[in-house]
Structures are given as C-alpha cells and as structure tokens.
Amino acid sequence: MPVMEWNESLVLDRGVMDETHEEFIELLNRLADAPDEKILVALDEFIAHTEEHFAQEQRWMEQMTYPPLTCHVREHDGVLETAHEVRRRVAAGETRFGQVLARAVAEWFSNHAASMDNVLALYMKEKGFEPDRDSLPATANPS
Length: 143
What we know:
elongated; disordered C terminus
C-alpha cells in the first residue's frame, strides 16, 4: 500500500520539478513496499534519486540567487542525513527502518512540497526561470 500518492495538490506547474517529485514519490512507495530481502536495493535507489533531486533544486536556487536557499538546503540535508543513517541500520539487518523512513519522509514531503517547494516554484515563475534537468537560466546561457 502506498505511503503517498501523487495528486493534484502536489502539482507545482514547474515541469521538471513536478516530474522529479512524481519519481521521488514512486521510489518512496517502492521503499515502503519492499520485502526485507530487497529493502537495501530499494533504499539505495531512493537515496541516489533523492541526492540528485535535492542537488538539482540546489543548482536552480543558486542560479537564481534564491534568498531562502540556506533554509531549503538545510531541510534537504536533514532528510539525506537520516536516510544515510537508516541505510547503515538496514545494512546491519534492521530492515524495519526502511519502512519507518518511508512513512516519515512521506509526511515530511507533503509539508515540504506545499511550503518550501511551492515558494520556490512561485519564485521561479516570477523570475521567468524555466529549468530542465541540468540547464542554466536563459539569461545565463552564452549566445
């Protein structure tokens, strides 16, 4: 059973950001549903995606000189720190922590997307910043 479902309330109308969030939720649900013998693989996939997801958002925020960048990144860092600690525990045989992490991150992400990511998306729109997975803003691209 999914710990979180993609729905219209999560749509920020920012293309790549929405696609990345949808992938994040899919991997979070895979982690929540993984049997013990596959939990480490699911956790590694979730962590790898989450590291890139958060780094992607940080690149965008840096490119736009986003004022609350530090606060936003601090939240991301806390989630990754917890995920890496859970990975150590799961690798040591404490597999139940994979599902615990999935439930906790689902709860966190609902709030984070509605607040921090929503404000970021509004700022991007205000600035005319249309990112793709690794682009610079149009004003920064040499022509």
